[in-house]
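Explain the record.
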Amino acid sequence: MKKVYPDAKAALADVLRDGMLICCGGFGVCGVPEILIHAIRDSGVKNLTFVSNNAGVDGGGLGLLLETRQISKMISSYVGENKLFAKQYLAGELEIEFNPQGTLAERIRAGGAGIPAFFTRTGAGTDIAKGKEERIFDGERYIMERGIVADLSIVHAWMGDTEGNLVYRKTARNFNPMMATAGKVTVAQVEHLVQPGELNPDAIITPGVYVQRIVQLHNYVKPIENRTVRKRPAAAGTGEEV
């Protein structure tokens, strides 16, 4: 099975449709499949529901799809750092399904593992529990949460091979591994693509069986949400900071 596609547009061409449920890896702008998001934007599909920890930032990540109003609903745990998100929500133009972050992660993991539902104490007795089945276990109140299975998952990986095995780098790992398992079709953008056998088997986090399509990144520039610099000590003999 050929998994490597020449670009993001080709990898998504026969997959995208209006009204899809899409899982998107990333946290803030770290580990976000930016190139695949660009391709979704350019395709013009609309009325999308996205499962993502957050909705990107103004002008980046899923924020690009908010600009074009292609997202109708977000299933998220955090929506800060995005003024457009707040504006659309408060205007009634965007539906939000809030999840505690751990619950969101487990819903995605459960979907990928074939678990249709699970019980958690998180959110019991709050607005999160409204409309959900409740049970008592060991004297404690629990609510039922459903696993999430998406029509499409898009993820970012540091390294991958042509069979779809993926390795993530440090905090860019975040939600990507679980998102990769929860999609009926998973498309991965990969910074470094190698041949089968070149990855250390012990380093592989997502097995290739979960990944159907791969796009290799070229000249990829990682976005930085908040760039900060600290002043360096004065250069010798100048008395001035540099």
Observations:
- Residues 167 and 205 are 6 Å apart (CA to CA).
